């Protein structure tokens, strides 16, 4: 296997050096056409990249350590040193470099010694001792060039202004990578006495990276590019590195144990492998390990602790999606706590909210069943302080005796005594406290910093708006239920009011006509009808205000109109102008109720002695019932905006229910209700109902039946 690997190296070396040559040619062309013409290093970057490409081409054609390649390598190093000198000119430091210029000249002199040493080794190193000596000197000189160039690079980047570092980033990074690679290569060669074949073969890949990086940094637009891996990729990569390092250390120790010798060594090796595997299975997948890894990566690899885009998407998803945990549905308040706890990797949390007395009470808990929360979780002083100051309580600071706004005396003891309690985040909506979230301490313990405070404050405001909206929706639903209840009661009161009006009129007429036998007979009929009406009202109580009616049936509108006249005759003068015996599709009980509303409204709007007129006729394919009064009438504006609005009435003490309920009942039966009115003249209500389809009656047939009757 080892021999096969060494046979692959020449092919790998040829491919990488050839790729480096092509990359250098493309990069030189890119810098020539796309690079910023005003940059001082442009004139040095193009020759440096071209000489590097020529060196790669010769290394691919000949051996990497052959004399022509070594000669070109010296020229390449001089071009890189000149490029480094020009990079100092991007912010004007090339004119005041002081002690840096002697270092540059020294590096150039050492690089010029390389061709001389190559000629000496080629012509005069005829013994193994001389070959070894020249090799050691060459490697030492190469290391000196690499070390000096790295020192200059550090001085270049560390001393650059913040505005210049963006231009220097890619060029300095590429040169640092190549010289660090060379330093490693020549140091190993110097200590081992021979060049490492693998590093020598892959040197062309380093040149390819150098050329591409110089091309990227040649223009201002592309120089701003940064490699920004996502946090998920970073965490996964770091996790793999940790696992790989752990396995490597485990294998090294396991392979070293047999050196103890004997059966004890073999037993120690097996025991260590078993123990290490158990530790890996228990520790690596744990939440504490993942939290520690995430905190470590965030602290050292990223400028900001949080990936704000992903945090906001996760927060919105948690709030909007109703999920379940352990088979139980998660309430909105629990999701609110979870949405905030996920941001700081908190494993649990509580939601407190002010009650009517402004003291904080427990509303919901998420994954925190063990904590004991008293009935009064916090006093109104703490709620007022959180509302006025709008700051996040760091409980660790309070436990250490520190405070900022005098909050120490108002924080309840149960919070400070609970070691897992970490922070209290107020939820403010329009400067009003709607709640507070208590977060549990993350498994990877850390202190809250400014970034935590800023993000939690913004999330708390957004969460407060959701809670306020949800509270408003609940209040609206409760108000809607009360409105439905009040609406039904209003319908009942309206019907009772109609009955009371009829009985009152009957009582007044009885004082005048009590001795009249016909009146007494009518009075008995009216009383019986009123009693029946009350019983029907009780039976229909559950249906009031819903618009529901019974199944439609054939109803004789002429007979129904006559019944209305008989019902109200003892109460108010009713005149039946016309009563065609015609069948309409309607619910008898509902239509009777609607007509009672319309007739009663007409009586209320008419003078005491002014009659109300009824007509039952056929109009095309519809049955028509008209209720006409000669009262004060209504304005067009009132008809359009107030007539069919519930609880809006033009009468003193009126409920505004009759017309509205009559229209809803008639609509539910497939009919419609129209109105015509003129002020000081009167009003006409017209009920339109579909004719019974099976009768096949037309207007003429109805008239014929009327004549026969």
Automatic annotation (TrEMBL):
Q: Does the keyword Membrane apply?
A: yes
Swiss-Prot/TrEMBL catalytic activity: ATP + protein L-histidine = ADP + protein N-phospho-L-histidine
Annotated InterPro entries: GAF-like_dom_sf, HATPase_C_sf, HATPase_dom, His_kinase_dom, Sig_transdc_His_kin-like_C, XrtA/PrsK
A Pfam family that this protein carries is HATPase_c
Enumerate the UniProt keywords alphabetically: ATP-binding, Kinase, Membrane, Nucleotide-binding, Phosphoprotein, Transferase, Transmembrane, Transmembrane helix, Two-component regulatory system
Known EC number: 2.7.13.3
The record's SUPFAM superfamilies line, in alphabetical order, gives: ATPase domain of HSP90 chaperone/DNA topoisomerase II/histidine kinase, GAF domain-like
The record's GO molecular-function terms, alphabetically, read:
ATP binding; protein histidine kinase activity
TM region(s), chain numbering? 6-32, 100-125, 137-158, 170-191, 238-261, 267-284
Q: Which residues form the Histidine kinase domain?
A: 491-693
One BP term from GO: phosphorelay signal transduction system
Name of the protein in question: histidine kinase
Organism whose genome encodes this protein:
Altererythrobacter xiamenensis
């Amino acid at each position: 296997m080892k021999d096969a690997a060494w046979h692959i190296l020449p092919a790998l070396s040829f491919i990488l050096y050839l790729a480096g040559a092509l990359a250098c040619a493309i990069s030189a062309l890119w810098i020539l056409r796309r690079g910023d013409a005003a940059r001082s290093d442009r004139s040095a970057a193009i020759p440096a990249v071209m000489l590097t490409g020529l060196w790669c081409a010769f290394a691919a054609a000949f051996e990497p350590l052959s004399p022509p390649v070594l000669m070109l390598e010296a020229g390449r190093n001089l071009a890189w040193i000149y490029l480094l000198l020009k990079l100092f000119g991007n912010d004007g430091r090339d004119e005041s470099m002081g002690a840096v210029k002697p270092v540059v000249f020294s590096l150039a002199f050492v690089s010029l010694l390389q061709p001389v040493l190559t000629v000496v080794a080629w012509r005069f190193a005829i013994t193994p001792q001389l070959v070894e000596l020249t090799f050691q000197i060459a490697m030492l000189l190469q290391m000196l060039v690499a070390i000096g160039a790295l020192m200059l690079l550090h001085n270049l980047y560390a001393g650059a202004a913040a505005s210049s570092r963006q231009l220097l980033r890619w060029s300095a990074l590429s040169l640092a990578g190549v010289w660090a690679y060379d330093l490693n290569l020549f140091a190993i060669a110097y200590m081992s006495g021979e060049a490492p074949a693998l590093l020598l073969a892959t040197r062309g890949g380093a040149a390819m990276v150098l050329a591409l990086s110089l091309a990227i940094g040649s223009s201002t637009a592309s120089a701003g590019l940064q490699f920004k891996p996502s946090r998920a990729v970073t965490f996964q990569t770091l996790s793999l590195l940790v696992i790989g390092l752990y396995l490597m250390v485990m294998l090294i120790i396991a392979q070293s144990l047999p050196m103890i010798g004997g059966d004890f060594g073999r037993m120690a090796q097996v025991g260590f492998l078993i123990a290490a595997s158990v530790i890996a299975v228990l520790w690596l997948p744990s939440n504490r390990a993942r939290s520690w890894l995430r905190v470590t990566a965030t602290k050292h690899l990223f400028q900001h602790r949080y990936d704000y885009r992903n945090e906001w998407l996760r927060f919105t998803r948690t709030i909007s999606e109703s999920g379940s945990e352990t088979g139980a549905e998660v309430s909105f308040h629990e999701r609110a706590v979870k949405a905030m706890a996920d941001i700081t990797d908190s494993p649990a949390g509580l939601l407190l909210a002010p009650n009517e007395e402004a003291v904080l009470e427990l509303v919901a808990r998420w994954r925190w069943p063990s904590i004991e929360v008293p009935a009064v979780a916090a006093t109104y002083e703490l709620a007022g302080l959180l509302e006025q100051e709008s700051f996040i309580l760091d409980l660790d600071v309070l436990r250490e005796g520190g405070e900022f706004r005098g909050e120490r005396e108002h924080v309840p003891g149960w919070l400070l005594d609970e070691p897992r309690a970490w922070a209290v985040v107020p939820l403010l909506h329009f400067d009003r406290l709607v709640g507070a979230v208590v977060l549990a301490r993350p498994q990877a313990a850390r202190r809250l910093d400014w970034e935590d405070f800023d993000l939690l404050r913004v999330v708390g405001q957004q969460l407060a708006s959701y809670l306020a909206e949800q509270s408003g929706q609940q209040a609206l639903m409760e108000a809607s239920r009360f409105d439905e209840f009040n609406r039904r009661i209003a319908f009942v009161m309206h019907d009772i009011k109609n009955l009371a009006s009829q009985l009152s009129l009957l009582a007044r007429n009885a004082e005048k006509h009590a001795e009249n036998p016909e009146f007494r007979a009518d009075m008995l009929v009216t009383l019986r009808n009123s009693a029946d009406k009350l019983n029907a009202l009780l039976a229909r109580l559950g249906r009031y205000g819903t618009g529901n009616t019974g199944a439609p049936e054939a109803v004789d509108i002429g007979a129904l109109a006559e019944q209305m006249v008989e019902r109200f005759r003892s109460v108010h003068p009713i005149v039946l102008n016309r009563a065609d015996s015609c069948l309409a599709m309607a619910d008898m009980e509902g239509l009777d109720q609607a007509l009672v509303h319309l007739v009663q409204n007409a009586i209320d709007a008419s003078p005491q002695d002014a009659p109300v007129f009824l007509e039952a006729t056929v109009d095309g394919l519809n049955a028509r019932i008209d209720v006409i009064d000669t009262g004060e009438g209504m304005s067009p504006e009132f008809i359009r905006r107030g007539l069919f609005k519930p609880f809006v009435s033009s009468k003193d003490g009126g409920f505004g229910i009759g017309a509205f309920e009559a229209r809803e009942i008639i609509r539910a039966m497939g009919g419609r209700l129209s109105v015509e009115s003129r002020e000081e003249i009167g009003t006409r209500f017209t009920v339109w109902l579909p004719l019974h389809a099976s009768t096949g009656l037309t207007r003429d047939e109805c008239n014929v039946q009327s004549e026969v009757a």
